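Form 7-S
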Amino acid sequence: MHYVSQSATKSRGDTSRRISSCAQALADDRGLDGFTMDDLAEAAGVSRRTLFNYFSGKVDAVLGEWRPLDEADVARFRDGGPHGDLVADLRALLAPFIEAKFADRDELARSRRILLANPRLISTVHQRYEELCAVVVEQIVAREGVAFGAGRAKVAISLLAALFDASLDGYLADPREREFSHHFDETLLIARSLLGA
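Output:
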């Protein structure tokens, strides 16, 4: 049996983030079509071969790696946990995305600027979102039953995505520089009060 050490996992994550940060800097400076993978390898201080071990192309490098949902979290959600409330449990299931250590606000603003300027990036993000959404919808239906319906599950996920985007605005503009999770939870409370949920 092969085990990957925590230091190896951390090292891989650090390298992946460094490559993505360099890809974003190049995309911001030159545009997505204004640099090559060779340029990116040089900027990130890795070989071309190493670069392709992490990312298949510039779009993936700029967007970075998206972690899959934790299997234990998915199983707990499907079994009705951890709180017994669908919205609170969806928030817990998606906590890795909500509580992730975001880059500093300038880097996050740059990421958003690059994304909005490049239709290919938007298309890829949408595809990744749809893939994640399909997994979560399947788990909601498994948890709530077929009568709940995939349509209602999709609405729940779409609402959370809209709350994520609204929270991002608040996070970027917050003079007190509070964590993103603070803004998301605050936005979620507002949505619940507006929807009477």
